[in-house]
Amino acid sequence: MHGAGNDYIYVDATLYNISDPSAAAIAWSDRHKGIGSDGLVLIGRSEMPEADYTMRIFNADGSEALMCGNAARCIGKYLYEKKTHPNPPCSGRGNHQETEIRLLTLSGVKRLILRIVDGEVEKVTVDMGEPVFEDEKLFNPDMAKELSASLPSGGVGGGFFISMGNPHYVIFVDDINAIDVAAEGRRLEFHEAFPQRCNIEFAQLTAPGVIRTRVWERGSGITMACGTGACATAVAAAQTGRCGRKSSIVMDGGQLDVEWRPDNHVLLSGPAEFVFEGEIEWNAFR
User: Fold this and answer.
1) What radius of gyration do the chain's Cα atoms show?
2) Which of 30, 195, 201, 262 is the most exposed place for a label (fewest CB within 10 A)?
3) Which of 74, 198, 226, 243 is an active site residue?
4) Is residue 74 annotated as a catalytic residue, yes or no?
């Protein structure tokens, strides 16, 4: 499945046990020798009464991620259309209805709001929670000046650390096409300012409320989109007066819409799509 081009392999862990998900993520994510993806996502049943299902995410390099907004949205579509999620549509009129799923992640329980049209999920909105601007486990503030001095030329006003359940560093630039995202993203991901590495966003305001963004995801490299990265970019733009509290983030794979509400919660909305279903023999990759 993919959300704005951010593609993952999804395994229903209530049906299939993946004993070594890190190794599976590395093997299956290879776009030449495997299935090809940004990583592997396992969908499980929650044992907590506060959540309906669980999500575990493994990047293409085998590392486990804390959160992924696009993956969460794809899980919502899968659960409703393939698993017949038990919650019936709870609001709406005619053929436009909504229902809700509670998803347990390593960053806490996330609320998914599914917009259903004629029995299919048209759009999924995720309540991503509140942004965090200081977290010494993820960002060393003593390294901030050194980090700013190392930013690529064309950066405007330095960079901004924001955690959306996982660490992001947003850099606004004059010309996003002039940035070597692969080289700069790889270098900054491993900067000493980030104890657990970091996701890197390069962003350019292209129209009122519209931000063109390219992302380097820790553990996966350049990806077509990143949900938490879109949220971090929107929050940084609003915080610095570049945009209001609603913005459209245009990534390589498509557009995601973000709202930073007055209650400090960030809502991420966008499409989720099935690409294909299949079977794979895990032993062949051991």
Assistant:
1) 18
2) 262
3) 226
4) no
